[in-house]
Amino acid sequence: MPTEREKKQAARKAVAVRMAGAFGKEPVLLFAARQAEEVLPQADVQPLPFAPDWLLGLSVWRRQLLPVLDAAKLYGFDPVVGRPLYLVLRTVAPAETKDGSRRLLRCLLKVSSQVAAREMSAQPPAVSAVENGIDPNLVTGVFAHEDGLLIVPNLLPALCSAADS
Amino acid sequence: MKTICVVQGGKFLLGIDAARILARTAWAELAPQRKKDEKIFHLAALLDRRPGGAVSPDAVCLELQGNDSRFLLVVDKIADEAETINPPSPLPPACPRLTARLCPQVTIWGDMPVLLLDPAQVIPVAIELGKGIGLLTEEPEAEMTESEPHEEDDPFFPEEKPVPVLFAPEEDSVEPEGPLAFLANAEEDVPAACSFDKEALVAETKSEEETEESAVETESQCAEAGPDNVDAEPESSGKESSTIDEETFKKVMSWTITRFKQSRTGEELHLGTDQLPQELAGMVEEKGLSRSIIQYLIDQIVLRCKETESAGRRLPGETHAH
């Protein structure tokens, strides 16, 4: 488990993605810098049959097969206008085996082109995900900020279980 | 290394172990010889969760070995046949359950992920989906994209029968109006007697035997599904009219003929209801007309236009040169 200090460090160095949404405030997805491995200008996505709309398909990244998720559809934001970007994200799934080994999961997340590195100088106040129309299972935190609604996504539910439409 | 046949079904790309393919036949060859009770699966429709529809003339029919029996699977095209360099791997856990069942493994072909189809799961998955999904029905529109539908042995276009009804025949009329009449009258009057119903059309294009049981079953199942079934074809809702009114008939005919005229540069013409101008599509929608009937009407007009063109542009009312 990361220490409090490590958590704070990770939070300070973030990758912010500004999306468009109907929450009153513009939603900004926040990822720890170490979680975002690469930003791709494009991706060849092979669609998957029977998939929900937020699961765009599979793509090959460095000879690895990764699921491609559409952030706008997953979180109910407005569709991405203009040319999208694809974030290669990694996340760690909790231990399921007896030896306690954890799984490293990767995915491509289709986002808007407004991606920027960001320093978080202060911890903004937390707000309710539900009250802001966001599925609480898909976030680890939602924060009010003058820049918009800061959302720290939790992609594990989308990556760990079968996405049936 | 395993040899896989990379096939396309709609927007999906799948790999099939070449050793599991027992035979391959061009759909254009197979369609006329198709048996009434033969169950054929349509890959694009199955993956799109809809009943089998129009089959591309370039489609290929694969005979595959299922769990207990052989079956036929129509694919849009065979993209490649290649040896798998990358060992297949299980699908990522995010993939839908049905996808993982139908295609439990995935490999990399070039730079593309290719799902590997398990032929033994095609029938069970189609059964699970129900409502005739993935099953090629014998509705006329399923056959209308054939490039040469007037071959002598074509059961859907028997030579002796008049060309399927675009107008209810008048008592004194012997020959149906030729397509040049449509060309000439496209922007003018349309004969008043122009209503026809789906049954008449189907009867024209099918042999006189009863409708295939499975096709009927499919249609009725779709109808049962009702508006809640978002994947069902619109004409399955049972709320659409099977009779075309004069105004719609005239507009569809004018539009089809115009498009035919515009396209006469040697290329194959494919007109579908999805290409109708917004105003006309809205009219069809508003009047609750069956899209399959509209599609059939379009196909027949195109057919007649082609017929006339190939016969040296006969004048309106002239008979066919069979």
Summarize the structure.
With 165 residues, chain A is mainly β. Chain A is built from three helices and ten strands. Chain A has helices spanning 4-12, 71-75, 156-160, and strands spanning 13-18, 27-32, 36-40, 55-61, 64-70, 85-93, 103-111, 115-119, 139-145, 148-153.
Structure description:
The complex is a heterodimer of chains A (165) and B (322). Chain A has helices spanning 4-12, 71-75, 156-160, and strands at 13-18, 27-32, 36-40, 55-61, 64-70, 85-93, 103-111, 115-119, 139-145, 148-153. The longest helix of chain A has 9 residues, at 4-12. With 165 residues, chain A is mostly beta strands. The mean pLDDT of chain A is 86. Chain A is globular. Chain A has a single domain (4-160), classed as CheA-289, Domain 4 (OB fold (Dihydrolipoamide Acetyltransferase, E2P)), CATH 2.40.50.180. A five-stranded mixed beta sheet of chain A has the order 8-1-2-10-9. Chain A has a five-stranded mixed beta sheet with strand order 3-6-7-5-4. Chain B has helices at residues 27-33, 43-47, 97-102, 122-129, 179-185, 198-205, 213-225, 246-263, 278-286, 291-310; strands at 3-9, 12-17, 21-26, 40-42, 60-65, 70-75, 77-83, 89-90, 105-109, 112-117. Chain B is elongated and about 60 Å long. The longest helix of chain B has 20 residues, at 291-310. A six-stranded mixed beta sheet of chain B has the order 7-1-2-10-9-8. Chain B has a four-stranded mixed beta sheet with strand order 3-5-6-4. The model of chain B is unreliable at 140-239 and 313-322 (pLDDT under 50). The relative contact order of chain B is 0.13. In chain B, helix 8 (246-263) packs across helix 10 (291-310). Chain B has two domains: 3-129, no CATH class; 147-310, no CATH class. Classes of the chains: A mainly beta (165), B alpha+beta (322). The interface between A and B is medium-sized, with 27 and 27 residues.
